[in-house]
Structure formats: C-alpha cells, structure tokens
Amino acid sequence: MPIEFKEWPKTPRLLRNITITEKIDGTNAAIGVVPVDTGEVDSLDPNIIAYVTTGDVRYGVYAQSRSRLITPGKSTDNYGFAGWVQSNAGELVELLGEGLHYGEWWGNGIQRKYGMAEKWFSLFNTARYAALETDLNLSVVPVLYEGPNDTEAVTAALESLRINGSVAAPGFMNPEGICVYQAASRQISKVTLDKNDAGKWEPAA
C-alpha cells in the first residue's frame, strides 16, 4: 500500500486559561432540543418526550443519562430526570435553546444527596449559561477559579472545598472535588477529595 503523510496533531498550550468548577456527585444527564417536522415520523419518535413551538419552529425535547436515552416512567427514567424535563419542557426550550445541554442531576436521593429536599440540574458549560436566570431547579456548576493554568489554583480550590464545604450546596461539608476545563485543549479533568486521587494534588489532612 502507498505511504501516506500523517501530520502530527497540534499541541495545545499548557499555560492558557483554565476554569475550575465544583464537581457535583449526582448522575450525568443531558437535555436535547431539536427542531422537528410536523410529519408523522417525528411524531412517532418514542424518545421525544415533549413538543414545544416557539415562533415558527417546532422543537422536540428529549432526555438522556450517561449511557442511554431516557423517558418518564419507573423503569425507563433515571432518578426522575426525564419526568422533570417533560414537565418543564416549554421553559427549558426558552432558556436553553437548540442543542444538547449536559449537566449533573443531583440532590435528594442521588449519591451524596447534599442534605437537600429537592433535586437540581446543574449545567456544565459555565461560559454558555453564565447569564442563566430562572425559578426552575436549574443552575450552573459553581466556578471556583478562572485564569491562567496554575497548579496552585487547583490546590487552593480543593483546599477551599475541604475546609468550607460545597459551594453548590452551602453547609454540606463532604463535597466530591473539582473539574478542570483546559480551554486550549477543550478537555476536562477531575480531581476528587477522596483517596482515588491521592498524591500531590490532595491537600494535606
């Protein structure tokens, strides 16, 4: 076979900005908003759990967990997330618009529970949803640091959570850790406060 040239991929700059957010211990989820036709095929799609018309555009709304599409129902949902999306579909379309909106579904009855009586959905993309304002149980993951890539900032963010507790759920003293988004590579890494990340990143006890 002929030899083909293969270019070395571009190397992201390490010292570009990072965004450190609190890593919330819930269940990964996403809301999908897609324009749909008024034809019979779209109307029969079992994964669309609500239809919303805004202006001249008709949208289909769906929900997913980390590993599958979900729909309202005891055996088909994931901690009630699809049911919540269906109940609030109209406002979610107005707030979020077209696209796939990833976040964490967390709170009452999920993982750490955070001492909460309700469940919340916290969006991951802090830049896109920075101006979000709503009365729904919908928020953005808390930003702990934004600036040049700095290992001291990572350590400081972890130390602050360890000492002061969760920012997402004030008063909860067992937060999970942080996520670090590197703008240059568009990659996210995590560091937790448990022993899974023991080493130079973990604050001294």
Query: What is the element string, with H for helices and E for strands?
Result: EEHEEEHHEEEEHEE
Secondary structural class: alpha+beta
Number of domains: 2
Overall, the morphology is globular
Q: How many individual helices? A: 4
Could you explain the architecture of this structure?
With 205 residues, the protein is of the alpha+beta class. The protein folds into 2 domains: 1-24 and 142-205, no CATH class; 27-140, no CATH class. It is 16% helix and 33% strand. Strands 2, 3, 4, 5, 6, 7 and 8 form a 7-stranded mixed sheet that branches. A 4-stranded antiparallel sheet has the order 9-1-10-11, covered by helices on one side. It is globular. The termini are far apart. Residues 200-205 have low confidence and may be disordered.
Topology (elements, then pairings):
Elements: E1 17-23, E2 27-35, H1 40-43, E3 50-54, E4 57-65, E5 69-70, H2 81-87, H3 89-96, E6 99-107, E7 119-123, E8 138-140, E9 143-148, H4 151-164, E10 177-182, E11 187-192
Parallel strand pairs: 7-8
Antiparallel strand pairs: 1-9, 1-10, 2-4, 2-6, 3-4, 4-5, 6-7, 10-11
Task: Identify the notable features of this structure and list them briefly.
alpha+beta; 205 residues; single chain; disordered C terminus; 4-stranded antiparallel β-sheet
Quick summary:
Helices cover 16% and strands 33% of the residues. The protein is an alpha+beta fold.
